[in-house]
Specification:
- It is a single chain.
- By secondary structure, this protein is an alpha/beta fold.
- It has one domain: Rossmann fold (3-Layer(aba) Sandwich).
- It is built from 9 helices and 11 strands.
- It has an 8-stranded mixed beta sheet, sandwiched between helices.
- Helix 1 (53-64) packs across helix 7.
- The chain is globular, with a radius of gyration of 19 Å.
- The two termini are 34 Å apart.
């Protein structure tokens, strides 16, 4: 594991010492799978924050089917010509996107608050750690490109991004999964417009759309990997699991820089 992290407690550089990372005062063991847990107890809002094993397994099934292929292709097109020295996937989940983009950067780092997600990501290309997006264990202005895909973004992202660095923010566009919502909900809704991100300005933006037919295991996986699974009455979900639903995938991609 490259010594790219700082201590989440005292903010000093972490260096490898046998099977651990240490700042000289605090020690963080490197797991057998190769990742390190830099999430301190005071940074946890729940006992096991982030996605659980069920959601991660569902996401793995969906992504292996090519569910996000249009999004990943668009992000590769943006990142490849940049070839950043350091790329950070903030909220990387099980590491599928991190793995795809790792060929286009010198060093690729995946961070997520979910220990189960990072454990699943380990073994893919990149360096992985369990960490809070609100307190990123990286030095000031150390990141050239920061990817934030369907995950919370906090003010600390501005700190770690270099002066001329790029933030690539991905959110669900207006019609994302609308037909699935029509099938599930009595009153389907469109996704809200993108929110402005304080202290960042957009330099480019695009909407990437495609259509996918959801049925069988893929339909179940897509529902399970989204908040719908936990926020929707069970009977409404069960009503659609035997259906075949062509639905829209729509992703908003904004490339942004820090305001001067």
């Amino acid at each position: 594991m490259n010594a790219v992290f700082i201590c989440p407690v005292c903010k000093k550089p972490l260096n490898k010492d046998n099977g651990s990372l240490t700042c000289g005062k605090h020690v963080f063991d490197i797991a057998r799978k190769g990742y390190v847990n830099l999430l301190t107890s005071n940074q946890k809002k729940t006992k096991s924050p982030g996605d659980n094993k069920v959601m991660i397994a569902a996401r793995k099934t969906a992504l292996e089917s090519g569910y996000y292929s249009s999004l990943y292709a668009a992000l590769k097109e943006i990142v490849k010509p940049l070839y950043p020295k350091t790329l950070l996937d903030l909220g990387c989940g099980e590491g599928s996107l991190t793995d795809v983009l790792a060929d286009f950067a010198e060093t690729t780092i995946g961070l997520d608050v979910s220990k189960d997600a990072i454990a699943a990501a380990s073994g893919k290309k990149g360096v992985y750690a369990v960490a809070s997006a609100a307190s990123i264990p990286l030095p000031d202005e150390s990141v050239d490109v920061l990817i934030n895909c369907f995950a919370p973004l906090y003010q600390d992202a501005e700190r770690v991004l270099k002066k001329e660095g790029l933030l690539i923010k991905v959110t669900p566009a207006k019609e994302h999964l609308y037909e699935l919502k029509e099938a599930v909900y009595p009153e389907p809704y469109y996704n809200p417009p993108d929110k402005e991100i304080p202290r960042f300005k957009a330099v480019n933006s695009k909407i990437v759309t495609s259509t996918v037919v959801l049925s069988g295991e893929l339909l179940k996986s897509v529902i399970t990997m989204t908040p719908y699974f936990y926020k929707t009455p069970k009977e409404l979900i069960e009503n659609v699991l035997d259906k075949e639903i062509p639905t829209t995938l729509a992703f908003s991609i904004r490339v942004m820089k820090k305001e001067e």
